[in-house]
Amino acid sequence: MYKVNQRKIQARDTKIKILNKSLELFRLRGVGNVTLREICKECGITTGALYHHFESKEQIIQDICYDGFNAFLQKHLRYQDSEFDAFELIISFVFLITDFSKFMGRDLPRESFKLFIDNPASKYYSLQGASYKTMYDIIERGQKCCQLRNDKPVEILQDYISSVGLGIWSLWSLSSLQIDDIRDFFRVLKPEFAIK
Questions:
Q1: Residue 182 reports pLDDT greater than 70
Q2: Which of 80, 95, 113, 126 is least surrounded by Cβ atoms within 10 Å, i.e. has the fewest?
Q3: CATH top class, domain 1-54
Q4: CA distance 73 to 67
């Protein structure tokens, strides 16, 4: 039993090391300028070990973006019950998308968006991650507290916010706009969430 747990821990640590080194290399040199062999060399592992964890460089990119954003969200989106303001939390959520995008640099979101265009049904872009659950909970609670419109199901508002978030991610990564310019746009949408 001890050896099995040790192997799982070692495998998890190796996967995290691959993701961290890949992110470091992608940010430093650009996604297109980094090979899997270079990632292996930086991690001190064989290509076989890398392929044990990831099928391709694209899967590494998707894991960095998907898992990275969910972890980033869980770390940074905090609120107290007494301070609950649903729309401000929605804005904070969208701003976290922009903050995460800035942290990642323009290249990784661009590559992630290209992968999304090629395969929108990918598990990485499903609405099942921690970020989806967090936003769902905020909207549901906002409706119960009469802070958000409740003439639409939570899922409709969630899909709307997800579309806006994806739009922000893609617009910024594929253009020369500054992320702060895009952030300001979202406040214009407040009437869409107001009580009707």
A1: no
A2: 80
A3: mainly alpha
A4: 10
